[in-house]
Give the backbone structure.
Amino acid sequence: MKNLLVILFTQALVNNFMLSRILGACPFIGVSQQVETATGMSMAVVFVMTMASAISWLVQNLILNPLNMGYLQTVSFILVIAALVQFIEMFLKKNSPGLYKALGIYLPLITTNCAVLGVAIININEGYNLVEAAVSGAAAGLGWGLAIVLFAAIRERMRLAPIPKCMEGFPIALVTTGLLAMAFLGFSGFDVARFVGM
Amino acid sequence: MSTVNAILSMGALGLLFGALLGVADKVFSVEKDPRIDQIIDVLPGANCGACGYPGCSGLAEAIASGAAPVDGCPVGKKRVADLIADIMGVSCESDCEPKYARVLCLGSKDKAIEVFKYEGIRDCRAAELSGGGAKGCTYGCLGLGTCVEACPFGAMYMGDDGLPKVDDELCTGCGKCVAACPRGIIELRTKNESVNVMCKSHARGPEVKKVCSIGCIGCGICVRNCPEKCITMEDNLARIDNSRCTRCGVCVEKCPVKCIIDLAKVPGGCQGCLGECASAGEAQAAS
């Protein structure tokens, strides 16, 4: 249990996918105009990451490892992620058209979101078991979601700020990302294992 | 052997996911009105939002579901409205006629006095918030060109007299300027609704006289003389019921301050300039 907590905090805060590993930057910049859509996007990412972590773990351990085909890891993981995203797109279209529209082009873009592939591969490299992998995926998604929601809130306020013309839009967004990443650097000195009492 | 394993396992994975997605597609299928796509094809596709819906697809859905009229696209005007009416299987009513922006104020620099010099942000909305702008008239055009900037079609420009002008060739009647004007001076009119009270002032006559030489003073002469009885006086401002107006021109002639104008009777056809003719006294001659 404590082990899972360590994974949760490590993946969500210390090794935050966006602000520490710099993975998933495309939707991070693209869907962060409003807190509402950012929240929707992070929900979708949490879901995709959790499912992708679990299923890719199964694929790795039930198919790739027994057959000694580790070299097909990337290909098979991408297959898993692409199918998952397609499924979620259909699901949202039916059950939440508003969110489907708000996410727009960025929903299919989760397919090529390197954070999703990243978490799947990191899980295998870290040698997690199935439950740990799923928790790690969810934590990574939550951490990414935290980053994008914070960022979206900042961008909403920045819209009213007197930003120099040359810095408007993406430049200031990238600078803000950098500052946020520096703030999250504070977590790197955080001894998670001791915090949860291990 | 490992090659065969690889092909088989990846193929099986692909088939499995393919089958799952196929089932999901059936389970989560959304029935879509085929007319929506047809209407989207007909619409201009500028996604300008002038209709009040989120983009052309939003309007198409609203039209298909009956929430919006077939002439809901102000940019596409009659041509698009007719095409959509065909798709929807209804006939386009008379109100499919195109509309144009009309600046209902004649308070040009020489007609309306300014009570102070405005040095703030060059934006009518900002001026309206900070002391109500420089114009003595609190209803008139502030002349800072917010409507001109709001126009997505480049159909508006500021005239030398300090009033915005509309180029009917370019105006699509989208209404962006109407929404942008903090004083609500701009309204949409069809070509036939050419007789207009070119003033928005609800102030009493003497007060109007003090700040503007061409504002409606609420004298009521037009109301009494209109043969169709289609002019009413609302809060010291004449209002013409365009649906009943026959454009006889009596009010244009009788108005003592000449703030009622028949735009169609301006020589050479009205270019939507609204004001140049009046300040040049041509409207008088034309009527």
